[in-house]
Design goal:
By secondary structure, the chain is of the alpha+beta class. The chain is built from 4 helices and 5 strands, in the order E-H-H-E-E-H-H-E-E. It comes from Clostridium lentum.
Length: 140
């Protein structure tokens, strides 16, 4: 059973990445996370949102990014959803140091960071329809 849930949508503007971090921080504060746990979640959400903006929508500001988060017990599940161009080969883009945008000097570490800072990471995508990143973290 869910204890609490939120859903927010915002434009695919780079300045909204900070909004996403603050919104998720405020939501998970009820779990009384440590400073490190809070930083981990904020960083993972930041990476997912940035991927949506840069790769999903290719920096076009007319896209919508949706974040859904739910708390059950001491666990949070966060979904970052975009309706952008999608990913052809999810396995390939999840490889450390892989980037589809070397022209933007991207590090190719976004999914690696998400996977490292969260307990679970699942990525589903369909070309032309968008990408959903689902992450979870359990707090002590």
């Amino acid at each position: 059973m869910l204890d609490n849930k939120i859903s927010i949508e915002f434009q695919s503007l780079s300045q909204n990445e900070g909004f996403a971090r603050v919104a998720i921080s405020a939501f998970i504060a009820q779990l009384d996370p440590t400073i490190d746990e809070m930083a981990d979640v904020k960083t993972a959400v930041s990476e997912a949102v940035t991927n949506s903006i840069i790769h999903g929508y290719e920096n076009k500001k007319d896209g919508i990014i949706r974040i859904e988060a739910c708390i059950s017990g001491n666990n949070v599940i966060i979904k970052v959803i975009d309706y952008g161009k999608g990913i052809i080969d999810v396995e390939k883009v999840m490889e450390p140091l892989y980037t589809s945008r070397p022209d933007l000097e991207r590090s190719g570490m976004g999914f690696t960071v998400m996977d490292t800072f969260m307990d679970t990471l699942q990525v589903t995508s369909e070309e032309g329809k968008g990408t959903t990143v689902i992450m979870s973290k359990k707090f002590n």
